[in-house]
Amino acid sequence: MLTRQRKELLLQILKQDGQIVAKTLSERLNLSEDTIRRDLRELAKEGLLERVHGGALPASPAMGNFAQRQQISADAKPAIGRAAAAMVRPGQVVFIDGGTTAVQLARHLPRDLRAMVVTHSPSIAVELAEHPSIDVLMIGGRLFKHSIVAVGAATMEAISQIRADIFFMGVCSLHPEAGITTGDYEEGCVKRAISAASLRTVVLASQEKLDTAAPFQIAPLSQVSDIVVNAGVEERLIAPYRAMGIKLTLA
């Protein structure tokens, strides 16, 4: 079998099974484990999958820039934002992450809601600038341009001084085994710190982010209380999270 044919077969199997276990697949295809691992490394360099210990998982499609990500699941994100906004109660301290879905959340907060929103995202702060009764606490730091959020030591220091009632986390990847992952190490550290400083962590995840993985772990799923996902998502994609006791809201 030619290298190109092998790689196409691996991608086909990954799409069909949702994961690749190198040892199992080597026996199934009568190929050496080293050959499969080499092919997986090369496919990972091309951004076509995410290497994990012992095999591979699908790569997240949500790794493009902010403008590109606005076009992904454009119909689903307003509904997810609306459902998440309905979870906020008057008087709460709410941390809103960056990202295109989080912007929709901010946009759907009721005009009469009195609360404090903490954010390290200029996009969220600008979205709430005209809200009549929400106080906005903007956390600064070095701008991570991919997600348009602040990261770094100054950001982490500010987060350590805050205790939020609820954290709405935007993600690029969510997987029952890999947990919550992202493509940038520093961004992962910031998200993890915010989650640890919040009583409740709610993950906002459109369907294309489920059952995918990125290089850096944010947190295990044991830290997640809720997932808001678009209605119509395949039950097989969300059943593992239900089994973990995570509350699912279908928007």
TrEMBL record:
Keywords of this entry: DNA-binding, Repressor, Transcription, Transcription regulation
InterPro entries (UniProt xref): Carb_Metab_HTH_regulators, DeoR-like_C, DeoR_HTH, NagB/RpiA_transferase-like, Tscrpt_reg_HTH_DeoR_CS, WH-like_DNA-bd_sf, WH_DNA-bd_sf
Coiled coil: none
Domain of life of the organism encoding this protein: Bacteria
Residues annotated as domain HTH deoR-type: 3-58
Molecular function per GO: DNA binding; DNA-binding transcription factor activity
PANTHER family assigned: GLYCEROL-3-PHOSPHATE REGULON REPRESSOR, HTH-TYPE TRANSCRIPTIONAL REGULATOR SRLR-RELATED
The name this protein goes by in its record: DeoR/GlpR family transcriptional regulator of sugar metabolism
The species this protein was found in: Pseudoduganella violacea
